[in-house]
Amino acid sequence: MPRRTRSLAAAGIAGVLLAGSAVTPAAAAPSPSGWGRPVVTDRTSPAEARRVDRVPTPDLDWYACYDYAECATVRLPLDYDRPNGATTEVALLRVKARDQQNRIGSLFLNPGGPGGSGTDIALAAPYFLSDSLLDRFDVVGVDPRGVAASEQVRCFPSVKDQTRAYAGLNVAFPWTRAEEQAYVASSEAVGRGCSTTGRPLSGAMSTAEVARDMDVLRRAVGDRKLTFLGFSYGSALGQYYANMFPDRFRALVIDGVLDPQAWVGRGKARGEVQEDRLRSAQGAYRALREIMTRCDAAGADACPLAAGDPMASFELVAQRLRAKPLVIEDPDLGSVTVSYADFVGATLGALYDPAGYAQVVGLTAELLVLTDPQAVTAARERARAAVLRLAAQARQQRAFDFPYDNSLETFLGVDCTDGYHPADADSWPARAARADRRDPYFGRLWAWATSPCARDTWTVRDEDAYTGPFDRRTGAPVLVVGNYWDPATNYRGAVSSARLLPNSRLLSSDSWGHTAYGTSACATGAIDAYLISGALPARGTVCTGDVQPFADPAPPATDRAERTKSALAGQVAPRRGEPKRLPPVVPPLPAVGTLTAR
How many structural domains comprise the chain? Predict the structure, then answer.
């Protein structure tokens, strides 16, 4: 049975209160030159400063890699309370600034996840970052501890053991009672594996540890202060850094924002699943309903579902698939099964792309035909061909047995170690059902993502995890970017995060897909201007995405990861002025492995 590793993830995080980590207030600390008037700011606490500052600045022995980049590895403390103790290897990649004479410094990137590869997004930077940033910054990506080219976390001694433990996770989310029981059993097996075999690294992957690594590496690249652009989960990392080291960055942008207090779970919220706090499903459902509303307004010529009630058609497909999965026989793919969970997972995956509305509508229309025994033959054949194309794509994305794929474990190593979660995995079926009643279709999907984090089975902890406060007055402003129709990082997370940070500015974007950079000249230009000069957009600025459902012929919706692979296949940097792609953001819950071919 193929293993489902990338179709489980989510959003939420932090763990045990960091002893002695309160940030000490400073008197009137001057802002960096050109960044406005001096303001009263908070400073890095003595305890946190002691942790990172006693680590010697690493000597980065860069070597040429990937034709136009440089790579390095460095060993950093596994536990910053024991700087001379055990270490873990961390990998970096940088693409040097085109204009070295006018170079500002280094721009650190994080693509999300948790578990996304920083070296991958840095290598892709010439394809999506504006030329103005590529001219002025060395772009640096760090693979967080446990991830990708860094020393990898492994929760099982072999692929065979991992495959057996993962067996119940091979669905987008469980729907039947039998699937729920198998999912709970596998969640418990993964929690136990990561709490035993995965140690000690699985207990040292908290967001706080990655923020500490980033501060040491900031020194290593020669920057007095950090410049950072974080997408999706990278917004959590950015907020951790801003609150742990409030006087150590010159510019910090978070795009696709997770509320850090919901990420952690504080007070009574400790016993909730993270989805109850973050409400990612609410964002996905709002986006789906808005697409169907615009479909209806556009008319049948622009949207095939507008011949009836678009939202009712979506629900009809859902009802039919809940009652009985669709099975299609194909000579090439064999037996292709489309379950209700597959339909919801594929819909969420399409919502991640600005042009994905066309796939949402198309898939719904095709399944409306295929699940109707009265549909005419010609329509059935057209719909069958379209669904089989999606199934073929899903099969290509699915993980295979070799080599060991730790992508789920990298997500859990952060999420479960950092955040507060319910104690018993057996409680997830009822909790997920409640989430689904609150936010239809997507509530169950998002809620199940963290079931391996149940505290009774995920027992490894990081005593130095950071749980707040998240309201520090930072020396430089934080630019908080929220997308109205983001299906993964609910727009309300950007609003609440901006309210938490006194020295922040909210940039809103009426755009589609996950995150906002690259969706319009307005959003991209505002982020670029702030990173280069510190110039903030005017308060209340709302950008509008270039792609709007049914407004123009839809560009093709494609998987971001596949776009990145394609872009990097030649390993040759693009020339100035070439069209830019969207950033290869790693969403908190990649919907792959759906539309199962068996």
Answer: 1
